[in-house]
Amino acid sequence: MASILAFLSERKHSLLLILSLFLLSSLLLLSLPSVPIPFFSDRQRTPPPPFPPPRSPPPSPTTTTTTIQNSNPSPAESSGDGRLQGEGDEEFEFRWEICRVGKGVEAADYIPCLDNVRAIKELRSRRHMEHRERHCPRPGPRCLVPLPRGYRVPVPWPRSRDMIWYGNVPHPKLVEYKKDQNWVRRSGDYLEFPGGGTQFKQGVTRYIQFIERILPSIEWGRHTRVILDVGCGVASLGGYLLDRNVLTMSFAPKDEHEAQIQFALERGIPAFLSVIGTQRLAFPDNVFDLIHCARCRVHWDANGGRPLLELNRILRPGGFFVWSATPVYRHNERDETVWNAMVALTNSICWKTLVKSEDESGIGIVIYQKPLSNSCYIQRKTINPPLCAQNDRTNVSWYAPLDSCISQLPITNSDQEHIWPPPWPERLNTFYSSQHEEPNGIQSAEKFYADTKHWKSLVSEVYWSDLAINWSSIRNVMDMNARFGGFAAALMDQPLWVMNVVPISEPDTLPIIYNRGLIGSYHDWCEAFNTYPRTYDLLHSSYLLENLMKRCDIIEVVAEMDRILRPGGWVLLQDKVETIKKICPVLRSLHYVTTTKRQFLVGKKGFWRPDSGGSSR
């Protein structure tokens, strides 16, 4: 006991000093004001808030509060007030509202860059279809598109090719307008597509067979793999060509043929909203094996022949143009005038007429072929239209004006000719070089094969087994930054198709995607995509969002993703963990059920919409 007392006596001054410091520190901490901890920290820099408050919210908006967890969350529970509850204690709030659209626009079918009523009213001219082109609102929408009443999970493929739910695309106008041409008909709760068309008097299957019979070198599904169908109607040609291993990019404008592209995508057939007006189509030069037009209502010789020059630009050297229209087989004054103009124009751009024939029903077809080299262009007696100066042309066709000149052909062999890609399916996994790729071809080939190997492994080892996605429910897929198309190639054995999008801010790999027998388009994800709402079952991106967030409003990007994704559809994102943590709460604010695993985020969209109305203004 004596020794203990002696020890305390020796240390008493030190103990008193430590106790005093502790009490003083406690008092200072208690006196400091409360400072909130930032939601997402960055030790290197202090950026603006990643999720700014909504612009001009309505007086009584729907607010969603999402609880964020750092580990893999269990499915959240939804309460009536829009609050998603989890185990974490951090919250992210955003006020979502239903989009308010312009007069004459159906809110459930809202396409921001094609339904900008104010911008369309201010156009000085509509002579060249300017009102059907893109006019994106600034800033972009930060709102949600409502569901049609009675919307339900789409009919699965392959039944959807022939029938869809009427309630998902409740547009009867085309049923009445084309009732005598077997485009589409109403049958109870369904819309049925019997495979007819204005030029398909004996059905689309017979029409496809007739084309190959009069020109066997087309060789559907081997020599001819990727085609463009201009003014496609409800895309029955593309739907039935799938049986022949032909992948068709069907496109038409949003016009009086109400919802034709929406019908096509609801059926599970690749389709795209666009128009040949004053700007180039969002496709590369020299990529389509064949272009088809059946009464597509395009005046090819208009505006100095620019519409046909645009087809010439995107048609592969040696590719075919199949034209089925009344000037081909009728002999009245009007049709003969159009035919004579077409003869003069095709001769001026060195297209060769391969065959002109009529089927048993009297429908006529003419098939042209684009030259393989530049020699004919150079040898013309009259150089009109002129050859384009290569240094004057932009490489990426995004908001670029139509050419009034002939784009020069890429040369791929010593005979100064363009070589056709390998036959399908060999071309899928074969690197095919053209002038579009990097100057160092070996480097490009190495990147191509490495990318193909990477995606084959990732899809088989991770996407199929480790991620909670029901792949059997997926038909329409979009890869938001496709690079070489490796993700789509890895899915080739599945009953689905992929729209490969190459962002304009990324290297231009879209020609390579077409060369391997796949389809896609250019796009800027700071703007809305040219498609109807609820048209894709799965949206995929790999390391896109981090860079995108530096120049785009991420709320606008996520709102656009939600617009084009079907209820019951999936978002599959691969990115840096920090980026995943920023995107996850935004998806949960939309009541998506989310799962994270390392650098992967999977979100499943439900049927939730805000309660606020979608009135016009």
Automatic annotation (TrEMBL):
Record-level Gene Ontology MF annotations: methyltransferase activity
Keyword entries, A-Z: Glycoprotein, Membrane, Methyltransferase, Signal-anchor, Transferase, Transmembrane, Transmembrane helix
Listed SUPFAM superfamilies: S-adenosyl-L-methionine-dependent methyltransferases (SSF53335)
Cellular location(s): Endomembrane system; Membrane
Membrane topology: Single-pass membrane protein; Single-pass type II membrane protein
Keyword Transmembrane: yes
Pfam annotation, one family: Methyltransf_29
InterPro entries (UniProt xref): Put_SAM_MeTrfase (IPR004159), SAM-dependent_MTases_sf (IPR029063)
EC number: 2.1.1.-
Compositionally biased tracts (Pro residues): 46-61
Bias type Low complexity, positions: 62-75
Keyword Amino-acid biosynthesis belongs to the record: no
Region (Disordered): 43-86
GO cellular component: endosome; membrane; trans-Golgi network
One record GO biological process: methylation
Family: Belongs to the methyltransferase superfamily.
Name recorded for this polypeptide: Methyltransferase
Organism: Ananas comosus
Lineage start: Eukaryota, Viridiplantae, Streptophyta, Embryophyta, Tracheophyta
